[in-house]
Target: Sugar transferase
Amino acid sequence: MKLAPIVLFTYNRPWHTQQTIEALQKNELAKESELFIFSDGGKDEVSWKKVNEVREYLKTINSFKKVILTFQDKNIGLADSIISGVTKIVNKYEKIIVLEDDHVTNKFFLKFMNDALNFYENEEKVWHISGWNYPIKCENLNKTFLWRVMNCWGWATWKDRWQNYEKNPQKLIENFTKEEISIFNLDNIANYYEQIVKNLNGSLDTWAVFWYATIFKNNGLCLNPVRSFVENIGLDDTGTTTSLNSNYSNNLEYDTSNIDFEKNIQENNLYEDKIKLFYLNSQNHNILFSKYINKIFDFLKTLQSGSEKYILYGSGTGTELVLSQIPNDKILFIIDKNLKKHNSYIKNIRIISLEYLKTFDDGNGKIIITVFGRGDRISTMLENEYSIDKKRIIILDILDTY
Model:
């Protein structure tokens, strides 16, 4: 297997850069890999001093097959640096692994990225490989999953996908429908679209949201590991674009040498729901999350009494929430569109694949849609494709609780 070149973008953070390089050097494929480093120039005398300090360190780097340094003589900014650097290298080598100066990697990072690039090379629906994932609970779950959202903390792609990249906020805003904006925003749990607007009005100058938009508009998918190979150590206000909290940190001290890649080439809604719940339960959303949980709990308590029976649509975190409040004997069964889950159980409640709904549904019991943010679409699908009476459907949709 021909290894992908590694491209690292640096600026004026000597300590962060050194941590990133030292972690990368510990990777088992480092000595067989070519490393291209693009060092952006300073904005002023103070930043130039740090930039030069970084560059002196970069000149000492070894432990790679080859190290190629590119020093900018002026400041072009992170966005332009990444766009031009990625384009140059991926056009020559057909594939690429990308890091920034605050991305500390697990020692199996390069193996994972190269294996994934090789595995999905000819799968036209997969556009992007992520090395990082949200710190979600992952017991007894697959090691990788596919979904629509792009993460840029350690990533990889191919020339034939990247060649579609376009940074044109005006064009995107003109062509995004209201429904697409909602889906793009993780069913309005996040606000990625706002970054496009800010790039248009000049209050932001970034690259990543446009790569995500490119993938999204082409119906592409992104591979995520369930457990991260990367930790971002730049969430300390030293970076040029990012200031987040420790909820996004990951522990990299575990064995991720053997990874089974997702062969089912479609979006994994279970992991999507877990990430949505992470967003809602993060420090940035704790007030909204509390309001949401309280409203849902108050509503579910009204369903505890009476003789009505219920069918739950979805087998993810929303269902877990419902089952914590409604007794099992009031639940007829659970619906999930994943055929592999047919005849499995959650808390002794049978899961029926959506494919068999017409066989098992006798018209009794109300259907509670537990899937975050997609209630309206699922309700419409049940009405149109399965002739479910709208009066039977209850939507636990987060958007209605804000």
